[in-house]
Specification:
The chain is an alpha+beta fold. It is built from 14 helices and 7 strands. A hairpin with a 2-residue loop joins β3 and β4 (200-206).
């Protein structure tokens, strides 16, 4: 009994000693590590990475058994295998690591910093974006009446150079007539996506990544799946016009919202691309909870 009390007393003294030494710097350190661990757990949960983590944990446990059980051959094989753990983790978790870094790059703090470092003036950028929005809205209305499909991507902070390289460079002003003409079903560049960068039509006929989500409605075709996939892989705002129904849709952050008309399309694009000047930070979709709250295709 006396030894138990002595042990408890020593543990209490140790805790008090650590508390006295604990500083504000340590609090920051613990907080950052906690957020990193939380982000790591959130990243691998319910994904293919979760199964890989279980496999790695099993190998580590087997290594410890071989070490303490003096299983020399097995221990040597596992030790040689685990020595390259860092390289192995980077290779196995490349998609998850890329996704995590992209999410960091999409954060409001990073976007605010990068936008402040830009060389273009805010007024000139806003004017160019507004002109591009007006051209896309006009073209979408024309294509909707003609029942012709379109897939238009507004580039934001995430640069889409890899996507642009798959198409044909245009570098033209974003007039409604030009955009509608490119998506005319007899035009050479109509089959693919258009990229709008810095308020100008940068490229057309681009190949966009398709979504791999199982929750996408079966009634959606390749064009809408490409719109969702593009918004999943970047912070772009993607406008899709259905060739079959003429419906206008917007994909942001992996979510697709449908049934826009000329007015609501313009309002939403202004809010998402220009910000506070046209509807507030976060955009109309964010305010209405449509980006995070609705499933794709509904």
């Amino acid at each position: 009994m006396g030894s138990f009390i002595e042990t408890v007393t020593q543990a209490g003294d140790t805790v008090l000693d650590l508390a006295r030494r604990f500083s504000f710097k340590d609090a920051i350190d613990v907080t950052i590590v906690t957020f990193l661990l939380y982000g790591l757990i959130k990243l691998v949960r319910d994904t293919r990475a979760g199964q890989l983590v279980k496999g790695i944990i099993l190998l580590v446990a087997l290594y410890l058994v071989s070490f303490y059980g003096d299983l020399m051959m097995l221990n040597g094989i596992l030790r040689a295998f685990l020595q390259s753990t860092v390289i192995m983790v980077v290779i196995l978790f490349q998609p998850e690591i890329r996704k995590a870094l992209e999410q960091v790059g999409h954060s409001k703090a990073v976007q605010s910093i990068t936008s402040n470092l830009g060389s273009r003036s805010r007024d000139a950028e806003t004017a160019g974006t507004k002109e591009a929005i007006d051209g896309v809205v006009e073209a979408a209305a024309i294509l909707q009446q003609l029942r012709m499909g379109a897939l238009i991507v507004f580039e934001r902070q995430t640069k889409l150079g890899e996507i642009i390289s798959t198409g044909t460079l245009v570098d033209a002003g974003p007039s409604g007539q030009l955009i509608a003409n490119i998506f005319f079903n007899k035009a050479p560049l109509h089959d693919g996506g258009m990229i709008i960068r810095d308020g100008r039509v940068c490229a057309a006929g681009c190949i966009l990544p398709l979504t791999a989500s199982d929750s996408v409605s079966a009634e959606l075709g390749t064009r809408h799946r490409a719109a969702i996939g593009m918004s999943e892989n970047s912070d772009a705002v993607v406008v899709a016009v259905s060739e079959e129904t003429g419906q206008i849709s917007i994909a942001i952050g992996g979510r697709l919202q449908r049934n826009y008309n000329r007015v609501t399309l313009s309002e939403t694009l202004c809010a998402e691309l220009i910000g506070e000047e046209a509807g507030g930070e976060g955009g109309i979709l964010g305010k209405l909870g449509l980006v995070k709250g609705k499933k794709s295709g509904r």
